[in-house]
């Protein structure tokens, strides 16, 4: 499945590069992971502004399908940080969103599409967690962006669909018991891109 997905990504990217008014570029930005509690977590930003803030960087392709319709596959390394009752959870993953977008008016555009995610590493409060149920998960991205020539800015919502938990044993209690951390991302992503 992973090889099929990678082959699909390469074929879509190659097709896009063959289109007129298409291209590829680099992108990066910040992510804010909320664990599903945006309004509760908003107050914590003042006390600990970098608590749930991660980052991403990578490549994208963008090709016009019609005058206003476009496709935009991406390959992005993402670092997510989360706070679970004072304990820190970090996750590194490769994201491969395949976005279908529509240019609304002038530089304004909206987009949505599936996001294929491959988890590279998880760490909970300094302990590397090897036991993640699924390394490969599926989610979705939906957002809005502005394209100003070769520079783009977008804000998107990223949500993982696949149930996926990381397990670890808490040895701080006499018997030790298994605890689980939900690794599905639910984040707001602010990105800046440069078409080359």
UniProtKB/TrEMBL annotation:
Keyword Signal (UniProt): yes
Keywords assigned: Signal
Signal peptide positions on this chain: 1-18
Matches recorded under Pfam families: OMP_b-brl_2 (PF13568)
Protein name (record): Outer membrane protein beta-barrel domain-containing protein
Residue ranges occupied by any Outer membrane protein beta-barrel domain in the UniProt entry: 18-163
InterPro entries: Beta-barrel_OMP_2
Domain of life of the organism encoding this protein: Bacteria
